[in-house]
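New to this. Please check both lines:
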Amino acid sequence: MQADAPTLLLPDAGPLITLAYAQAFDLLLKPGWPVQIVDMVPHEVTRNQTPTSATIAAWVRANAVAVLPTQTMAKQLFAGARFRSCAFPPPDGSAGSRSRDACDGNARAQRKIVSESAAARPALSLPCFPCCIPSTTKPSVEPMPFTPPTIDAIRANRARLGDLVLTTPIRLLVDHALDAAVGASTRVWLKEELFQRTGSFKPRGALSVMLDLDAAALSRGVTGVSAGNHAISLAYCARVLGTTAKVVMPKNANAFRVQVCRELGASIELVDNVHQAFARVKEIEASEGRVFVHPYEGPKTALGTATVGLEFIDQTRAAGVALDAVVVAAGGGGLSAGISCAVKQMSPSTAVYVVEPEGADSLSRSIRAGSPQAIDAVRTIADSLGAPRCEPYSFALNQRYVDEVVLVTDDQIRDAMRLTFRVAKLVVEPAGAAALAALMFPLRQRLEGKTVGLVVCGANIDPQTYAAQLLP
């Protein structure tokens, strides 16, 4: 092996890695770099510390190595190559602050390991990463420990939620107009989460967070950001748990949803856009001591949304049905994260598809990039799906369990709203029709003849807005 050839390090982190590795992967990616295959790097480092993306990038620059984020990707790119274990250097402070001599020593030791095992593997010249990156890189992001909810944990959480949330019904749709839209041989089952308390799935996640708050935290109240459904949910959850909610909403939020929030006792602040809403909620958190309940991020939120998938599989199995696929809408990815996690663990052969509007495609962008991404603005009628960015934990679950993310146009969502009204007799908001839109358009041919479950996620819409969307 050439002395100056870069080394490819493969972190031993299972099928999904920490955000730090994802960020480093994104920072260092550049095609055309000659690579020698070497060893997998243990995810844990000495002193039980987890390196940040900055630490990884600095180590790469200093040691002429490259980091590939997953074993799965490595095996796909380098089929037949063999791997052995090697050590990641301990991060004593910042990797960039270590002396060059120390880094050179680590590099020599690393290359010695490589040399001893190189005879067992051919040298490869494939796209990988540069060993040096400019100083004007993206800011580092601290990794979030990633532990998917287990089915036992999801079941226990569903039991804890009790009758504060409903086990929403499922239904097989049979109608000739549906046959024409999705294929006569396709069987469509609805999970009618629009009948959940507050008109959407949102209380499942919010309550899963708030039930763990101690008395002191509950007494200070909660806060959140929402275009409507999460705001309504926080107002409901605060009421049933005996506390208060202050919610920040964009000024273009549906007036009906704002009214419902206030009727449930929430205090509402309106700001120009959802980006400003997130900034304002941090101020409320700091000044009032309220607990921020994120609309779609975090392990407890995912534990709550996972109960939708748990129920869906349990209910269809009880009906003697095996779902070939489940389709769910995403607005940040919290619902799809939980549902996909539950479905894939309970029924690994069931494909999980996520749908986003073309004008709010943060999850689709994130999956393509391999790390959480943001969008500059929301441009869709499905305002409930208008998250400004993906977040680490929900992104990680989606990346692990979702088979594919597809996009639909606003006109396709409108067509699905009309069909939902006609064949299911359901009045749904645009987000609630997005899963059907995906089945009618981008997924139609792929899922024709299959048994497909659609999650109808919400129906918080006023008559005037609903009618305006349905008119040609």
